[in-house]
């Protein structure tokens, strides 16, 4: 079983996490094809992927950059990096 | 004893013709290049040659014939899908399966077993009725059955499920079958080879060459091939191919795992699936219990096995079949499932002229093998989508016209 | 007569305890410490089983679980592996997979027909004519499988435990023990596991009589067993290697899920058979198998032996046989004896005849070895002109080894063929994986110890993040211990490559010639390596055969993937204890005591209705009527309950839900509908404004956790100043509904319930029965109603008080079923029942919940903007015609329009308020937009008309929500 060496809570098995998938940013004023592509398309090819992982026991979010071919976490992303503003 | 076996015994030497060609050099040009030598690729090659007379075809396989998901699935064939488009498509497939052995002159061990999808909740019961009604409307044998019916057909199952999640009923699909997965690929491959198709194993596509929006050929680790039409039939490797063309798709890859027990004397003739418990099981003609569960929860391009899978699976299995606790798990493995957002495949033409997709097979690729081959061959030959696959076109996502198969989500092998 | 030897120095037996058991109806005895096979062999029962396909007689071969020739059945378990299963008193065993008895197996006839069953025969027959295949399939299934299952067996489960260590060393032979010691000396926390019940590995059977090994053995064992940093786990099988050094160890008490930081595989090598005619006759054994039999179980393997060898180990085995009192008729060396070292010299000094450059051509005998035919061998074939027969009842094979590299392969190592050792060796190991010992090509004891030390040192350096010593010791041998072609053809075949599957040499050759010339294809077509031994004794020769047929090297030929498990693992151990999370509300016991029929709702149990199963319909009706005319109380504690606090709370909810939440007035609530990015409905609930910077949000039972998760993620990605508390488990909730609700509550609470102060959709905090509560004026069931949210510890008190005081108003508890009817009368949807995995709010007929114009943004808005004009179906209300008395439609029955599917019923129930059946249906366009009658197809196939109608069915004006107290008084 995969272990994530988490910077906050130390090594934790993957079974404690919920996987949400690729970190994405909605295009706010997109035309229809761009929006549809955003909603459905994914970076499916193997390689580095930024993903949302939710640690259930502590209720905390992590964004990890993971090599989806080797199943290795390359780094934990500062959550500031995945922020975006929504129109109020 | 069948006559065929008698013949073998009376012959002094074993002079059987080859199933597949020996390795030979690639030609510089083919009319069609099929990427992927699994069941789908071989079936497509077979029907191209047989039904459309297109034989200047190369099937390129990075590993060996049927070594991907064709050889890793749990061999279940059924057509009790939720949507009319799904039902029609898989029913065509099932009908083709029934005649494959004759077609190939090869025994694919196609065996109709009856397929139970257990419902443990009233909402699951509702979904079962929905599926049954859609199936019946399209002439598919499919019905919601109660506990008594199940108890009669699968008397050794604990319908109370050890106290929690008792079985309330099931969707029963009498035509549900199993087939020897390898033989399906081999039969198609042999048939294609005998009709002039070239099969190149251990040949990896490294890029696809285009001019403007048109395919002109493929680069391989054995050199360049020019061609007019390329079809990608690589399931779990689809994103690797589409990314060569910068073609975006909704496909994500999740491992799907399975395992077999040590062989025991066959006692189980039916196929049992529990969507709520996320497990399914049948018994092979070797006596092994073939068992699986739902896809792994996170993206991974790997066929590694996990221990959680086999722990979770066996835990649930004992609730349904207490005696199985005395058996042993012999081997586990995984395949890479190419999953789409609406649990339906992506087939046919793409925005790139001459590039065709047969992908998004999720956990249902094997049962679609014949119909995929047939409809993709037609699509390649006519350069327009076969009517059966039109609902599965890639552009449905841009159009927000998804296929409703997700309504019957959960495990449905 | 017994073959039991005098006590051997390292034997596993406890001779003070004699165990009686039965085999094939005959009485036997053995000692504690015996395996089933060793006890039978000690009693001269050399026929232990029958082969899978041809039902050929089989005996003990490896005594190491590398073959399954000795497979037994008991009334408790199938497929018992006799070679390694400890004998227990009272066992009653039979042979596995025989037709009749082991002695007189009627299926031996299949062996006579083997020439009619070429490789892959089943692919080429039985399918014509098609209609006969089911008959043939029955025959095949009858012959398939090994042991027999009794489906009446009850469930067994073995608890699992977790283990952690720095370094896991798998294999407690010489190199493994040395590696463990070396690492432990460096301060690492080491676990040393071995599948055998005793540590020592081949030191204890192969070098049992080698005097120079004795002091080393004693010292090593003493040191590892007494070292404070080493936990020794004998009897623990490493089932497989999983990601990040997760190695489940199957022990006698169950599985220890060991998480290591690094793993050393010191798993040794598996002896490989020579392939010659009748190499499966009882009496033909691996040399190491015979050594195990002598050293561990003190059983004399035979009277007169021939030893076939291609390495020094064969000479060691011959010496061991002599020591055990076995006459050694000849050592047949496939190569030259002068390279075999000191054991060969020692053997020659004992005047044993050595035939160099010879091989065994054939074994003879019916159910047991009688003669061995040997002949000069040139490396590929025998010269039969010079063949001769030697009488023998024992033939030991010592011709080569295959690495037990399964863990290494699973970890992603690269292995390659070494033509010096004629063995596959580790080439590149992934991070944290190390290998040593014979698996790594170290064969002499000195090499193995040095290699163990090297591996231990490297593992310690890796774990301490220290550089490796510059000088890398190469501990690999320079002599071959395996023959590159231990295979002799025979025109009559029966020279088996795979004992499990009865595969002969010609089967593999023919498979390759038919185009199955890739190792994986060959495996799949011929089934080599697919049996219960998983290729342990078959794969290496299979690769050699394929390489020879195709003219490729071993590396070019490759090998099949080594997947877990190493040995089959019992389901009861894998499953472990049963654990089913079950969530119970604070009133759970009350529900049970009051006759509730419980149903599962996610992990929760909820009352479906109160009353006996037989009077289900009446009970539900009673509950509905109580709510409509008097009072009802339902436990809704399973709803998700989320506290949303902070300056950006409104912004969060605005972004997460379709409707604007930031402008909800203090002490008011609003319907909260959540869609995903594609516009599909995923959840609904109610949001209440508790304070300027504080909201209280509910979610559906099944989606509560996901909603909490989604909100918490939005806080992160939108950079909001909001805190969330998931109060689902700590707060109970109940809905008091019915025209008397206000009247019952008023005297019990300090909250002003007047319409002006606390209107419909209002929210209040205060006290009820002296307990702090939150009240929400809800209308889900369509009556004046108050949802009461309160701490779980006070919930039962309030529930009891309401039930007691409500008696005068005819209060009844009501369950999920009554609630479904009540909400249906109001036309309220249930997410997941009236919607499916693709339903958007327009389809659900809730355009009012999608403020596309007034809100600049919410999750899914662009999708909904796009979907608004593409609505393909709509949720509509319907009624069965007045007075309809035919077959009733059910949920998910299909609407049919001009012969096509045109939708489905999502909800249907009898409405006591209307006296008719009512329901909701998801209706396709254009039917949904018309005012034509619908038709639904019921179970019988008949079409039943449905009258489309507006929703809600009941109290369209919502007057019941403001019903005046005096009116109903």
Automatic annotation (TrEMBL), chain A:
GO terms for biological process: tetrahydrofolate metabolic process. GO terms for molecular function: sarcosine oxidase activity. It comes from the Bacteria. This is N-methylglutamate dehydrogenase subunit B. It comes from Marinobacterium stanieri.
TrEMBL record, chain B:
GO terms for molecular function: oxidoreductase activity. The keyword Oxidoreductase applies. It holds the Pfam family DAO. PROSITE patterns: RHODANESE_3. This is N-methylglutamate dehydrogenase subunit A. One of its GO terms (cellular component) is cytoplasm. Keywords: Oxidoreductase. Residues 32-76 form the Rhodanese domain. InterPro entries: FAD-dep_OxRdtase, FAD/NAD-bd_sf, Rhodanese-like_dom.
From TrEMBL, chain C:
Keywords: Aminotransferase, Oxidoreductase, Transferase. Residues 587-853 form the GCVT N-terminal domain. One of its GO terms (molecular function) is oxidoreductase activity. Residues 166-415 form the FAD/NAD(P)-binding domain. Gene3D superfamilies: 2Fe-2S iron-sulphur cluster binding domain, sarcosine oxidase, alpha subunit, N-terminal domain, BFD-like [2Fe-2S]-binding domain, FAD/NAD(P)-binding domain, Probable tRNA modification gtpase trme, domain 1. It comes from the Bacteria. The keyword Oxidoreductase applies. The keyword Lipoprotein does not apply. Pfam families: Fer2_4, GCV_T, GCV_T_C, Pyr_redox_2, SO_alpha_A3. SUPFAM superfamilies: Aminomethyltransferase beta-barrel domain, FAD/NAD(P)-binding domain, Folate-binding domain. Residues 873-955 form the Aminomethyltransferase C-terminal domain. Residues 492-577 form the SoxA A3 domain. Belongs to the GcvT family. This is N-methylglutamate dehydrogenase subunit C. It comes from Marinobacterium stanieri. The lineage of its organism: Bacteria, Pseudomonadati, Pseudomonadota, Gammaproteobacteria, Oceanospirillales.
């Amino acid at each position: 079983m995969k272990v994530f060496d988490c910077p906050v809570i130390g090594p934790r098995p993957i079974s404690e996490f919920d996987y949400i998938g690729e970190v994405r940013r909605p295009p706010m004023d997109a035309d229809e094809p761009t929006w549809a592509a955003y909603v459905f398309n994914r970076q499916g090819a193997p390689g580095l992927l930024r993903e949302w992982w939710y640690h259930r026991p502590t209720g905390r979010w992590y964004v990890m950059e993971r090599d989806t071919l080797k199943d290795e976490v390359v780094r934990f992303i500062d959550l500031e990096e995945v922020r975006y503003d929504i129109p109020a | 004893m069948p006559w065929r076996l008698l013949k073998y015994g009376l012959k002094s030497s074993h002079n059987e013709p080859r199933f597949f060609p020996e390795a030979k050099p690639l030609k510089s040009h083919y009319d069609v290049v099929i990427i992927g030598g699994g069941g789908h690729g071989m079936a497509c090659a077979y029907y191209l040659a047989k039904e459309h007379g297109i034989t200047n075809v190369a099937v390129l396989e990075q590993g060996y014939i049927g070594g991907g998901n064709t050889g890793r699935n749990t061999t279940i064939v059924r057509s009790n899908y939720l949507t009319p488009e799904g039902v029609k498509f898989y029913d065509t497939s099932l009908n083709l399966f029934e005649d494959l052995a004759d077609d190939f002159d090869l025994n694919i061990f196609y065996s109709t077993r009856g397929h139970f999808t257990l419902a443990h909740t009233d909402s699951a019961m509702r979904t079962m009725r929905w599926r049954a009604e859609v199936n019946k409307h399209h002439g598919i044998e499919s019905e919601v059955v109660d506990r008594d019916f199940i108890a009669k057909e699968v008397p050794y199952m604990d319908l109370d499920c050890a106290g929690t999640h008792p079985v309330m009923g099931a969707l029963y699909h009498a035509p549900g079958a199993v087939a020897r997965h390898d033989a399906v690929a081999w039969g198609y491959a042999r048939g294609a080879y005998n009709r002039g198709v070239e099969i190149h194993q251990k040949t990896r596509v490294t890029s696809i060459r285009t001019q403007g929006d048109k395919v002109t050929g493929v680069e391989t680790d054995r050199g360049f091939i020019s061609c007019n039409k390329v079809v990608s039939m690589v399931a779990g490797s689809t994103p690797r191919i589409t990314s060569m063309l910068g073609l975006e798709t909704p496909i994500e890859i999740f491992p799907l795992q399975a395992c077999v027990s040590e062989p025991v004397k066959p006692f189980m003739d039916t196929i049992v699936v529990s969507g709520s418990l996320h497990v399914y099981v049948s018994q092979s003609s070797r006596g092994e219990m073939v068992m699986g569960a739902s896809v792994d929860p996170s993206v991974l391009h790997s066929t590694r096995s996990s221990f959680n899978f086999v722990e979770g699976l066996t835990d649930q299995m004992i609730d349904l079949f207490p005696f199985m606790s005395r058996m042993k798990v012999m081997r586990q493995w995984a395949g890479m499932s190419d999953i789409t957002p609406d649990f339906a495949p992506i087939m046919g033409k793409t925005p790139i002229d001459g590039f065709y997709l047969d992908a998004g097979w999720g956990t249902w690729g094997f049962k679609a093998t014949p119909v995929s081959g047939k409809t993709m061959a037609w699509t390649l030959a006519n350069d327009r989508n076969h009517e059966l696959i039109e609902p599965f076109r890639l552009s449905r996502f841009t159009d927000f016209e998804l296929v409703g198969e997700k309504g019957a989500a959960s495990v449905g092998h | 007569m017994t073959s039991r030897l005098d006590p051997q120095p390292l034997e596993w037996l406890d001779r003070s305890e004699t165990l009686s058991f039965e085999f094939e109806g005959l009485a036997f005895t053995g000692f504690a410490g015996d395996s089933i096979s060793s006890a039978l062999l000690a009693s001269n029962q050399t026929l232990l089983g029958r082969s899978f396909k041809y039902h050929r007689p089989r005996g003990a071969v490896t005594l190491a679980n590398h073959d399954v020739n000795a497979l037994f059945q008991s009334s408790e378990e199938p497929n018992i592996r006799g070679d390694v299963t400890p004998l227990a008193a009272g066992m009653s065993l039979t042979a596995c997979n025989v037709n009749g008895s082991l002695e007189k197996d009627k299926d031996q006839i299949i062996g006579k027909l083997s020439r009619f069953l070429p490789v892959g025969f089943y692919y080429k027959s039985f399918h014509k004519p098609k209609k006969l295949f089911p008959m043939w399939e029955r025959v095949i299934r009858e012959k398939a499988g090994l042991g027999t299952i009794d489906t009446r067996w009850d469930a067994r489960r073995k608890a699992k435990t977790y283990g952690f260590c720095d370094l896991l060393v798998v294999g407690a032979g010489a190199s493994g023990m040395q590696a463990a010691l070396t690492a432990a000396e460096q301060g690492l926390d080491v676990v040393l596991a071995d599948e055998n019940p005793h540590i020592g590995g081949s030191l204890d059977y192969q070098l049992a009589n080698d005097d120079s090994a004795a002091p080393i053995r004693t010292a090593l064992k003493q040191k590892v067993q007494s070292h404070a940093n080493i936990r020794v786990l004998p009897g623990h099988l490493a089932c497989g290697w999983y990601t990040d050094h997760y190695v489940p160890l199957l022990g006698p008490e169950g599985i220890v899920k060991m998480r290591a930081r690094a793993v050393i595989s010191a798993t040794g090598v598996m002896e490989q058979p020579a392939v010659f005619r009748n190499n499966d006759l009882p009496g033909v054994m691996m040399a190491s198998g015979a050594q195990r039999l002598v050293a561990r179980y003190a059983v004399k393997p035979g009277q007169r032996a021939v030893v076939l060898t291609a390495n020094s180990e064969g000479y060691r085995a011959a010496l061991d046989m002599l020591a055990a009192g076995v006459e050694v008729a000849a050592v047949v060396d496939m190569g030259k004896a002068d390279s075999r070292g000191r054991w060969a010299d020692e053997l020659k000094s004992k005047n044993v005849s050595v035939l160099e450059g010879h091989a065994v051509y054939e074994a003879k005998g019916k159910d047991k070895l009688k003669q061995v035919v040997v002949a000069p061998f040139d490396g590929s074939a025998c010269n039969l002109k010079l063949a001769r027969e030697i009488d023998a009842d024992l033939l030991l094979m010592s011709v080569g080894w295959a690495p037990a590299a399964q863990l290494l392969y699973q970890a992603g190592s690269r292995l390659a063929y070494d033509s010096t050792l004629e063995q596959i060796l580790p080439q590149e190991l992934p991070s944290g994986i190390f290998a040593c010992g014979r698996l790594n090509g170290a064969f002499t004891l000195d090499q193995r110890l040095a290699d163990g030390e090297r591996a231990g040192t490297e593992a310690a350096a890796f774990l301490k993040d220290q550089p490796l010593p510059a000088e890398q010791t190469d501990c690999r041998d320079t002599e071959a211990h395996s023959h590159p072609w231990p295979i002799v053809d025979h025109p009559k075949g029966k020279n088996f490559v795979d004992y499990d599957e009865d595969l002969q040499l010609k089967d593999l050759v023919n498979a390759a010639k038919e185009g199955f010339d890739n190792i994986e294809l060959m495996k799949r077509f011929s089934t080599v390596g697919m049996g219960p031994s998983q290729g342990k004794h078959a794969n290496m020769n299979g690769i050699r055969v394929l390489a020879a047929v195709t003219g490729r090297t071993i590396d070019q030929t490759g090998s099949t993937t080594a997947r877990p498990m190493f040995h089959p693992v019992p389901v009861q151990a894998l499953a472990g204890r049963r654990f089913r999370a079950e969530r119970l509300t604070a009133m759970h016991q009350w529900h049970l005591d009051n006759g509730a029929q419980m149903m599962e709702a996610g992990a929760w149990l909820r009352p479906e209705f109160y009353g006996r199963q037989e009077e289900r319909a009446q009970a539900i009706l009673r509950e509905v009527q109580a709510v409509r005319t008097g009072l009802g109380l339902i436990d809704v504690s399973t709803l998700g309950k989320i506290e949303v606090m902070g300056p950006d709370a409104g912004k969060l909810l605005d972004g997460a839900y379709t409707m604007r939440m930031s402008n909800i007035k203090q002490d008011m609530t609003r319907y909260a509908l959540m869609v995903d990015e594609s516009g599909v409905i995923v959840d609904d609930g109610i949001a209440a404004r508790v304070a300027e910077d504080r909201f209280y949000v509910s979610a559906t039972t099944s989606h509560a956790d996901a909603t909490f998760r989604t909100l918490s993620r939005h806080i992160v990605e939108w950079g909001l100043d909001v805190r969330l508390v998931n109060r689902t488990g700590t707060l109970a909730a109940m809905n008091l509904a019915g025209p008397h609700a206000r009247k019952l509550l008023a005297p019990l609470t300090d909250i002003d319930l007047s319409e002006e102060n606390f209107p419909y959709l209002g929210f209040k905090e205060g006290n009820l029965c002296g307990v702090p509560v939150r009240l929400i004026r809800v209308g889900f069931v369509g009556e004046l109603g108050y949802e009461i949210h309160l701490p779980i510890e006070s919930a039962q008190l309030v529930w009891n008080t309401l039930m007691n005081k409500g008696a005068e108003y005819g209060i009844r508890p009501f369950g999920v079923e009554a609630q479904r009817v009540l909400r249906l009368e109001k036309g309220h949807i249930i997410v997941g029942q009236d919607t499916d995995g693709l339903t958007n709010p327009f389809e659900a007929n809730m355009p009012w919940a999608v403020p596309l114009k007034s809100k600049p943004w919410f999750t899914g808005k662009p999708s909904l903007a796009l979907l608004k004009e593409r609505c393909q179906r709509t949720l509509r209300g319907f009624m069965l015609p007045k007075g309809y008395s035919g077959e009733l439609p059910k949920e998910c029955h299909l609407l049919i329009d001009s012969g096509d599917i045109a939708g489905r019923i999502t909800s249907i129930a009898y409405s006591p308020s209307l006296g008719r059946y009512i329901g909701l249906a998801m209706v396709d366009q254009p039917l949904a937009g018309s005012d034509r009658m619908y038709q639904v197809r019921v179970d019988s196939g008949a079409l039943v008309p449905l009258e489309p109608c507006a929703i809600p069915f009941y109290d369209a004006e919502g007057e019941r929500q403001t019903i005046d107290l005096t009116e109903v008084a």
